[in-house]
Amino acid sequence: MTLFNLGAREAGHYAEPVTLADLVEQGEARSVVLESGDEVAALKPYLNRLELVVLRFPIFRDGRGFTQARELREYLHFGGEIRVEGHVLPDQADFLKRCGVDSVVLPEGSDVRPWERQLKRYSVSFQRSVLPEKVLDVGTRVAR
Amino acid sequence: MTTAIGQYQYDQVDRDFLAARIEEFSEQVARRLDGALTEDEFKPLRLMNGLYLQLHAYMLRVAVPYGTLNAAQVRAFADVARRYDRGYGHFTTRQNIQFNWIRLEDTPDILRLLADVDMHALQTSGNCIRNVTSDEFAGAAADELVDPRVHAEILRQWSTLHPEFTFLPRKFKIAISGSPNDRVAARFHDIGVIARPGDDGRVVFQIFVGGGLGRTPIVGQELYDSVPEERLLATLEAIIRVYNAHGRRDNIYKARIKILVQALGVAAYRNEVEAELAQMDIARYRLSPEMVASIEARFAAPDLQAPEGAAAVLAEQRAQNMVFDRWVRSNTHAHRSEGHIIAVVSLKPPGEIPGDVTADQLDRLAGLSERFAYGELRTTHLQNVVFGHVRQDQLYDLWRGLVDVGLGAPNVGLIGDIVACPGLDYCALANARSIPIAQKLGARFADMTLQEQIGALQINISGCINACGHHHAGHIGLLGVDKRGEEFFQMTLGGRADDQATVGKILGPALPEDDTVDAIARIVDRYLQERSGQESFLETLKRVGEAPFKEAAYDTV
Ligand code: HEM
Ligand code: SF4
C-alpha cells in the first residue's frame, strides 16, 4: 500500500488500528478504524489517547466519512491523524483535506499525480472549512 | 461588459474558478476515455457537471442560478443550440436549460463557450446541493417582502464544491422566495426557504424541510419559523449534516431527506439539528451583514424611470386591441414600481412542446430583453420566461416582438400552460410519452377565449413515477403508467405547489392517451357547470368534492 499525504502532516506509523467495538473492550489502543456508519461521538472517552483515526470508505459515493472527519475536528477537536482507506477517488482529494483528513491509503503502485493535481487545482473556495484558510475580503470566499 | 441586472457579477476570481472547474472536467473525460476511471466512477462526476446519458444521446443541463439571465447568456444558449444541438433548447422545471443532443467529446468546448458568459453546468445533477431556485418575479413583484436573489447567490456560492456535501445520499434541492405568495414551491423542496424582514431590519428565514415529489410525494414541514440571517448558513449546514450522516443509502428510493424527516418526525429532526448547532463553531459559519452587503454590491438595480402617463398609454393600447388586452390579462403581473409591469412569455404555444425554444427565438428574446427589459430575462419553474421590468408604455411593442416569433400565447396560468417532463421521447425510465398528450391537450383547448373562461388551471404531466413533471402538484396531474405494454395515464386532482401545498389525489383507474384527453375535457365541462361565480377550478373542487369530476371522467368509458 501507498500512503499519500493530503497536507503538511506526515502519515505516522501506528499499531494496527482496532475496531470501535474492540476499542471499547481494550481501551488502551492508540488507533481505531471507523466504518462509515459508526458514530464519531463514541470516541469521546478515548480521545486523549488516540493518535490515529482511520475512516473506511466502502465506496467513494458514500459521503458519510466527510461528516465523520469534520465532526472529529470541529466537535471533538481531535488533533491526531485522520486517515482514509477504502474506495476513494483523486477527485475527492480536496474535499477530504478540507474536512480534516490528513492521509489516504492507496493500493500499492497507485499513480499519485492525479491526487497532487487535484490538491493544486483551486485557488479559492466558497465556504469555510476546518482548515485555517485565509479569508478573502469580507469573508464569503477563502484563499487556498 | 455591461453590468447585468438582477444577477451577481463575476470577478476574475470567479472566472478563474470556473476555468479550473472546466479543466477538471476535461481531465475527468480524458481519464474515462483512457480507462483510469470506470463508468461507475465517472458517472457521478459527470452528473455533477450536468451531463446525463439519455435514451439517444447525452443531455447537458446548464445552470441558471435563481433563474436570472442576461442577454449575452441567452445568445450563448442560441449558439450552443445551433452548433452542438439540433437548433433548440429546453427550459426545465428548475429554471435551468437542457440541450438534448450533445456529444461527450463536445462538452468541454460547450462548457468553455458558456464560461465566456459566466455560465456553467455545476451541480445541476448528482447527489449534491443542486442549483438553487428562486422567485421569477424577484425584485419586481408588488407582493414581495424581500428580494431573495442576494441570499440565493450566497447559497449558490456556499454550496459550490462543498467539501462535506458533495456525496450526499441523494440529490438535494433548495428553493428560496421572499414573497408570501410562494412561487417557488418551497414546500416541495428538500429545503424551502421563505425570507421576510425581521424586527431588527435584517432578514429572517422560515425554513421548511423534507418536501418532495417523486415516488413518495410529501409536503415539507416547517423546521423553523424565523432563523436570523447570521445563522442561515449554520442552520443549513446542520440540517444537511444530519441528513448526510443518517439519510438512507441502501435504497435510492428511500434516500431523500423527506424519508428521514418522516422516519424521525420533524420534532426529532429539529432536536438533531439543535444538537449539531450546539457543537458547531458558530462563528465560522456566521453570515455577517458585511458579507451580505458585499454580494449585494455585485448586483445592479434597474433605474426604474417610466414617463408620466405610461399607464395611460397601456390602457389606451389595451382598449384598441383585444388580442393584446387578453395577453395582458393572462401574461402580466403587477410591478412594485409605478409605470412598470412584469411580462411572462408562454413557452407553451398550442400544440408545441412545453418549454422548448429554438435558437432563433432565443436570439429574439435576448434582443427584446435589451430593448425593453434592461437586458435581463428570467426562467420560471413552470417552464416559461419572464421580462422583469417593462415600462407600461413599451409593453405593446414587446408583445408585438413576441408575437413575431410565435411566443405570443396568452395562456400563462391557464389550462394551456402545461408542465410536462421529456417522457418516453427522450427518457429511458419513462412508461409513457408526456409530450404528445401535452400537445393534444394544448390543441384541444387551443381556443384562447375558452382558456380564459376556464381560468386558473394547472396541468402537470410526468412519464413515470419519478415525477419530473410534478404531476402531484398539478391541479390536474397525469402520470404515465404501463399497462401490458400500452401507455396509460393516471389522473390526480387537487394538487398545488403554493403556500397551501397539497399532493393531488388519484381520481380512478388509468386511461389510454386519447381517452385521457377526452376525460379531461369532460372534467373541465363539469367544472364550468358546477362553478359558482368566479370560482377557480380548485375552489370548485374544494366545495363540491371529487365525486362529480370522477363521474364526468369515467362517464363513457
Ligand atoms: C430525460 C431525462 C431524465 C431522467 C432520466 C430523469 C430522471 C429522474 C429521476 C430518476 C428522478 C427521481 C429522483 C428521486 O426521486 O430522487 C427525477 C426527479 C426529478 N426530475 Fe428528472 N429526469 C429527466 C429529465 C428531467 C427534466 C427535463 C426535468 C425538468 C423539466 C426534470 C425534473 C425533475 C424534477 C424537478 C425532479 C424532482 C422531483 C422531486 O422533487 O422529487 N427531469 N428525475
Ligand atoms: S418523470 Fe419519468 S419519464 Fe419523465 S423525465 Fe422523469 S424519469 Fe423520465
Explain this structure to me?
The complex is a heterodimer of chains A (144) and B (557). Chain A has 144 residues and is of the alpha/beta class. Chain A is built from four helices and nine strands, in the order ββαββαβαβαβββ. The longest helix of chain A is centred in the middle third of the chain and has 11 residues, at 64-74. Chain B folds into four domains: 12-65 and 85-115, no CATH class; 133-296, Sulfite Reductase Hemoprotein, domain 1; 310-404, Sulfite Reductase Hemoprotein, domain 2, CATH 3.90.480; 419-553, Sulfite Reductase Hemoprotein, domain 1 (2-Layer Sandwich), CATH 3.30.413. In chain B, 38% of the residues lie in helices and 18% in strands. In chain B, strand 11 (332-334) and strand 12 (340-345) form a beta hairpin. In chain B, helix 1 runs antiparallel to helix 2 and helix 13 packs antiparallel against helix 14. Chain B is globular, with a radius of gyration of 23 Å. The model of chain B has no long low-confidence stretch (mean pLDDT 93). At the A-B interface, helix 2, helix 3, helix 4 and strand 7 of A face helix 1, helix 2, helix 5, helix 6 and helix 10 of B. Protoporphyrin IX containing FE (HEM) is lined by residues 52, 54, 92-94, 98, 170-171, 188, 212-215, 256, 421-422, 426-427, 429, 466-468 of chain B. Protoporphyrin IX containing FE binds next to loops of chain B.
